[in-house]
Design brief:
The complex is a heterodimer of chains A (544) and B (677). In chain A, the strands form 3 sheets. A 7-stranded mixed beta sheet of chain A has the order 1-2-3-5-7-8-9, sandwiched between helices. In chain A, strands 10, 11, 12, 13, 14, 15 and 16 form a 7-stranded mixed beta sheet that branches. Chain A has a two-stranded parallel ribbon with strand order 4-6. In chain A, strand 12, helix 13 and strand 13 form a beta-alpha-beta unit. The longest helix of chain A has 25 residues. By secondary structure, chain A is α/β, with parallel strands linked by helices. Chain B has 677 residues and is α+β, with helices and mostly antiparallel strands. Chain B has 5 domains: 100 residues, Rossmann fold (3-Layer(aba) Sandwich), CATH 3.40.50; 68 residues, ATP-grasp fold, A domain (Dna Ligase, domain 1); 237 residues, D-amino Acid Aminotransferase, Chain A, domain 1; 123 residues, Glycoprotein, Type 4 Pilin; 69 residues, RNA polymerase II/Efflux pump adaptor protein, barrel-sandwich hybrid domain (OB fold (Dihydrolipoamide Acetyltransferase, E2P), Beta Barrel), CATH 2.40.50.100. Chain B starts with 10 loop residues before the first strand and ends in an 8-residue tail after the last strand. Classes of the chains: A alpha/beta (544), B alpha+beta (677). Chains A and B meet through helix 1, helix 3, strand 1, helix 11 and helix 20 of A and helix 16 of B.
Chain lengths: 544, 677
């Protein structure tokens, strides 16, 4: 396989500046990770430990095989919100007893593990990863239940009600999905570290294996006050739902652990007996390091996404041995297509080197079909401002040809992994297998921007539309007000398009250090290989 | 004897085992002589069995069933077609009946005549012989059953030595300081002598508390030629057994050497001695007293070989073939200084009691700097049936000081793990100012008290633990069934570091006196550049990895490059680093439940047989009271009450075989406040 030749000059001022900017962003990221790790803060952690309990990250660290990797999903969820960074919840892919699992759990130091919209979304994402990739599902259960602040507790109740976009009536999908996993022959394991009450009781209730911890697990539909109110019975927590009771009398608990460490040990033993066999072929190619230093990934992309860069420079620092066999290099050159491998897993790569034109869209559709023909997963590397616009291009069938690409992407059945390196605007995001296109994993670089269009374009478009509306009504157009509106709109669009905001809203699986791209892709691909890796010949009707 | 004809030996049977069997095989092969080994069941995989041309199983496990069974050994000679027998040392080497049987069977006996053996074999008659030819001896009196031992001991004066008439190697030997200890000492010496030599005759001898043990190597042929090969000093002893020997002696000048040599030759001549032998003396200043003659090759013969350039086994074989020495006393000289250290599987911290086990690693380092006469190799099992000596390490240097220094270095570099041993004690002895000054007497160990264990620095322990975690993680990564090529412990967010816990019983500098074990937490994290950040407790280290394989790690710790050999057996880690051996136990990641130590139980300190029990269930015992006697490796070990209390359970009976660590007795401590109202 040909080896990519790098033309990157690391001595240029441009590279050095990009690198400095990137390191600055990574430093910010690092601070946020530290904040997420701190959970509910020192005092809450102390309180936890004094009760013989461990923080969630320690629990997860202990259940993992020593020295095996752990890929946390959406670690910065809820940044710039009313909740803790990370949303008091950890979900990730890790190796337990040589088996890749989805592992998740509440952080008991953060509001006693209360649910909020961010960590609920993370939990559902965890279930989705387990289902799509056929991975055993391990949940560390300890939750006080719903965070009532999110239910309008406090503040102006009218405003709170107006803000409310959801309703209890649509909740509970989580229980459905746990049992669905079981039906799909994907084992589900609960280790109950603390309270799991009322609706929460169904978390272990729906699991295949339940490990309860002496003196800690509390699983009941109604606690002592509710029981008192409902039936007048005076009941204590241990007899209502203690670990001893459930493992000796009710049978809800399968294993009785002495303490947290013991429970984690039992969890490892349960996974060990699952007889887990991955259904994908696993890595089949040499897994040698790239020839070019991944450190150089720091200086390739400029924060100002208008500055172009060659996506091949990224590929050369991500794939095994920097080997890349490019497909149709002379046709539709704004989209690079070709074959490579990452940690031995073969992939077909689609990377943007400019806007999508008719030729590049058709090339993409063909390439995606070829990868489906040979069961090779797809890796999308985004730096896309969108499909080209303009009279000539519309007349040349850009919408028609772009649709072919989207048809191919939507119906492709090989796993898709998406890395948003730079821009990911508009339909370009869809065509490049954005989050909504059933992509197995989506990760973003700190330089990523995701939006319907560029913030400046958006503000400008809005001005033009409003100016036209004013003209139609014969009103005078207030230029000063327009400028102010445009500035606000641009600020909003800019802030909301930033990668960090996107990742905080759990619209991807997390922001990554560019240098770790190769490892992240490898873990994602390996996760995908738990399920079958099979392409399709069936696509929607091609608009010819 | 002048008409002795030369009759070459073609096939030599070695009626011995371990290092001496290998050593004899080596010289025999050098001389073109074929070899036959004989072996007990437990030695079936020993190096000497493989190295001999052929080997014959004697069938049986104990000495008595094998190497001491004259009929079996003679039968092995016949079956193998051997035409000569070398008995080595110990076992049947000084057994007249065996020598006779060999000769009667028409084979050559590599050793002195049966007559010479029998004349010298009995220590008391040997003494008498020496007195007759004018060699000074120490007062000695035989003791028989029913005699008034107390009176005899008084006659000689305390301290008095109880000694086995047929003895050797410190077996059946007891120093008695006071009359109160006499009767016990005699009983146990008698039992030990019976077990070791099949002869329980004892005598009492005057005991010189502080003197030097100096011996003269003699060599005679069957043509009437007799020479001595100068002296060896073997004063460094524990349990009356030599552990460091040297030649020449720092306390012997030319004049004393002359006198000692003359006395030795006088003795040898009087019995018409041939082959190699040793005349032992106690020396105090310029005075010396005859102790005994060993009518065989000595364990410590290599130091003489090193300074004289002679191969004593070759000389023995030549003599047995009928050759004349070919040199006279005047032709002999010596050069340089040689020291030998004996490495035993024993516990210096437990009164040098044998400590059997499996050798996890035996790897001599500086093989060009020393001679290793070893009976073991990695994987050897040191059992309870035989002497626990594993090897002798011998160096020769221009001066004594250099020899001591070189030997200490070679011993430190030797990787010897899996069995408790005396190496560190030997090193401490060799490095002690007293030893270097030549101030060596038989009470050296009590007087100088060299450190019995190696005291390591906390850095050294850190380094060993780092080497372990680095190798462990590399091993786990390469063995991983999924994601094995991904960086060790990779994380994209902040997670706790990898943690491994260890328990160390190693004595650390600044924490001497503490026999307590210590738990250490090692937390580490791989960094993107492939280096590791390692915290050992609260000490931070930066580690770069140059190479890791199944046997060790080549790493740089805080910019200091070093290599480690590593072996894990179960949870135990045996690390050999640049500064020596370190052993630690890795604690399980998840604690084993209900593994709390059994309180109040006394366990066997080593595998062995229960010789006698002295208490019954329900007995109340005083602190220090004898509870039972274990016999292991032909030595007795007394199990005494660590505290006053009541025997609630006696779990063994006389004759039982017990394993190391097996529960023997359960003792309930008598409550201090429980008595009286």
């Amino acid at each position: 396989m040909p080896i990519l030749e790098s033309k990157l000059d690391v001595r240029t001022e441009e590279f050095q500046k990009n690198r400095t900017d990137m390191l600055e962003m990574l430093a910010t990221l690092d601070e946020l990770y530290i904040e997420a790790e701190a959970g509910g803060g020192e005092e809450a952690m102390e309180r936890l430990r004094s009760r013989g309990k461990m923080p969630i990250r320690e629990r997860i660290g202990l259940v993992l095989d020593n020295d095996s990797p752990f890929l946390e999903i959406s670690p910065l969820a809820a940044w710039r919100s009313n909740y803790n960074v990370g949303s008091g919840f950890v979900v990730g892919i890790g190796v337990i007893s040589a088996t890749e699992c989805v592992i998740l759990g509440h952080d008991p130091s953060v509001r006693a593990g209360a649910f909020n919209q961010f960590n609920s979304k993370k939990l559902m994402r965890g279930l989705e990863i387990a289902r799509d990739n056929r991975m055993p599902y391990v949940q560390f259960v300890e939750s006080a239940g719903a965070d009532l602040r999110g239910q309008g507790g406090g503040g102006d109740p009218e405003q709170a009600i107006r803000r409310e976009g959801g309703h209890f009536g649509e909740s509970g999908r989580l229980f459905y999905e746990i049992t669905e996993l079981s039906k799909m022959r994907i084992p589900t394991i609960s280790v109950v570290f603390g309270a799991s009450t009322a609706g929460g009781a169904y978390q272990p209730g729906m699991s295949d294996y339940n490990i309860f911890i002496k003196g800690q697990s509390k699983v009941f539909l109604g606690g002592p006050p509710l029981v008192k109110m409902a039936t007048g019975e005076d009941a204590d927590e241990e007899s209502l739902g203690g670990a001893d009771m459930h493992t000796t009398i009710s049978g809800l608990g399968d294993y009785l652990a002495d303490d947290e460490l013991d429970g984690i040990r039992m969890c490892r033993e349960v996974v060990a007996h699952l007889n887990w066999r991955k259904q994908g072929p696993g890595p089949t190619m040499p897994a040698d390091e790239p020839l070019y230093d991944p450190e150089e990934l720091l200086g390739i992309v400029c924060e100002d996404l208008r500055v172009p860069f060659d996506m091949r420079e990224v590929i050369a620092r991500v794939v095994d041995g920097s080997r890349f066999e490019e497909f149709k290099p002379l046709y539709g050159p704004t989209l690079i297509c070709g074959w490579a491998s990452v940690h031995g897993f073969p992939v077909g790569i689609l990377g943007n080197n400019g806007a999508l034109f008719s030729e590049s869209s058709e090339k993409a559709a063909q390439f995606i079909q070829l990868c489906n023909q040979i069961d090779v997963p797809l890796l999308f590397l985004h730096n896309i401002t969108g499909y080209i616009v303009g009279t000539d291009f519309e007349q040349g069938g850009i919408t028609k040809n772009g649709s072919k690409m989207i048809n191919a992407v939507a119906n492709s059945t090989v796993p898709h992994i998406t890395i948003i390196v730079g821009a990911s605007y508009g339909a370009g995001n869809y065509g490049m297998s954005g989050r909504a296109f059933g992509t197995r994993f989506t990760f973003i670089w700190p330089t990523a921007k995701i939006a319907v269009m560029g913030p400046k374009q958006m503000a400008g478009v809005m001005s033009i539309v409003q100016r036209k509306a004013a003209q139609r009504r014969g009103l005078e157009f207030d230029e000063a007000a327009n400028d102010e509106r445009a500035a606000i709109a641009e600020y909003w669009a800019e802030e909301r398009s930033k990668g960090l905001f996107a990742t905080s809203r759990v619209s991807d699986d997390g922001m990554i250090d560019p240098r770790e791209t190769r490892t992240v892709i490898a873990i994602a691909l390996s996760a995908c290989h738990n399920n079958v890796v099979v392409g399709t010949k069936e696509f929607g009707t091609w608009r010819m | 004897m002048a008409n002795v004809t030369i009759k070459p030996i073609t096939r030599l049977l070695i009626a011995n085992r371990g290092e001496i069997a290998r050593r004899i095989i080596r010289t025999a092969h050098e001389m073109g002589i074929g070899t036959v080994a004989v072996y007990a069941d437990g030695d079936a995989t020993a190096p000497f069995v493989r190295e001999a041309d052929t080997a014959i199983a004697l069938g049986g496990s104990t000495s008595a069933e094998t190497y001491l069974d004259v009929d079996k050994v003679i039968d092995a000679c016949r079956r193998s077609g051997a035409d000569a027998v070398h008995p080595g040392y110990g076992f049947l080497s000084e057994n007249t009946a065996f020598a006779d049987a060999v000769i009667t069977a028409g084979m050559r006996w590599v050793g002195p005549s049966p007559e010479a053996i029998s004349q010298m074999g009995d220590k008391l008659s040997a003494k008498k012989l020496m007195q007759d030819v004018g060699v000074p001896t120490l007062a000695a009196l035989p003791i028989a059953d029913g005699e008034d031992i107390t009176a005899k001991a008084q006659e000689i004066g305390y301290p008095v030595l109880v000694k086995a008439s047929a003895g050797g190697g410190g077996r059946g030997m007891r120093v008695v300081e006071t009359e109160a200890e006499l009767s016990d000492a005699v009983d146990s010496a008698r039992r030990e002598a019976k077990a070791a030599f099949g002869d329980d005759r004892l005598f009492l001898e005057r005991w010189l508390t502080s003197s030097r043990h100096i011996e003269i190597q003699i060599l005679g042929d069957n043509h009437g030629n007799l020479v001595h090969l100068f002296e060896r000093e073997c004063s460094i002893q524990r349990r009356h057994q030599k552990i460091i020997e040297e030649a020449p002696s720092p306390a012997v000048d030319a004049e004393l050497r002359e006198r000692l040599g003359e006395a030795a030759l006088l003795a040898a001549r009087s019995i018409g001695y041939s082959s190699a032998g040793t005349v032992e003396f106690l020396v105090d200043g310029n005075d010396f007293w005859f102790l005994e003659v060993n009518t065989r090759l000595q364990v410590e013969h290599p130091v003489t070989e090193e300074i004289t350039g002679l191969d004593l086994v070759r000389e023995q074989l030549r003599i047995a073939e009928g050759e004349a020495l070919g040199y006279t006393q005047a032709d002999l000289s010596f050069a340089g200084h040689a020291i030998e250290a004996r490495i035993y599987a024993e516990d210096p911290n437990n009164d040098f009691l044998p400590s059997p086990g499996k050798l996890v690693a035996w790897e001599p380092a500086d093989i060009t700097l020393a001679r290793f006469d070893s009976g073991v190799e990695t994987g050897s099992e040191i059992g309870i049936e035989f002497d626990p000596m594993m090897a002798k390490v011998i160096v020769k240097a221009p001066t004594r000081r250099e020899a001591a220094s070189r030997l200490a270095r070679v011993l430190e570099g030797l990787r010897i793990q899996g069995v408790t041993n005396n190496r560190d004690f030997l090193v401490a002895t060799l490095r002690s100012p007293e030893f270097i000054a030549g101030d060596t007497t038989t009470d050296f160990i009590e007087r100088v008290a060299p450190s019995r264990v190696r005291i390591i620095s906390s850095d050294e322990l850190d380094e060993a633990l780092i080497a372990i975690v680095i190798q462990s993680q590399a091993h786990r990564r390469s063995a991983a069934r999924v994601l094995s090529t991904v960086q060790s412990g990779w994380r994209n967010s902040k997670m706790p570091p990898e943690v491994t816990r260890f328990r160390s019983a190693q004595i650390i500098n600044g924490e001497e006196g503490s026999e307590e074990t210590k738990d250490i937490v090692v937390a580490y994290r791989a960094l993107r550049d492939g280096t590791f950040e390692v915290h050992v407790d609260d000490r931070e280290h930066s580690v770069a990895v140059f190479g890791v394989d199944a046997y060790g790690a080549d790493i740089e710790i805080d910019r200091r490059r070093m290599s480690f050999a590593l072996t894990a057996v179960g949870d135990d880690w045996f690390v050999h680093g640049p500064r020596g051996d370190v052993t630690v136990r890795e604690l399980p990641r998840f604690p084993v439940r209900g593994a709390d130590d059994f309180q109040g139980g006394l366990v066997a300190p080593m595998p062995g047989n229960v010789l006698t029990t002295h208490v019954n269930e329900g007995d109340t015992v005083e602190q220090g009271q004898l509870l039972l006697i274990l016999e292991a490796m032909k030595m007795e070990h007394r199990i005494t009450a660590p505290v006053a209390g009541m025997v609630t359970k006696l779990l063994v009976a006389e004759g039982d075989q017990v394993a190391n660590g097996e529960m023997l007795i359960v003792l309930e401590e008598v409550s201090q406040t429980g008595e009286g109202d």
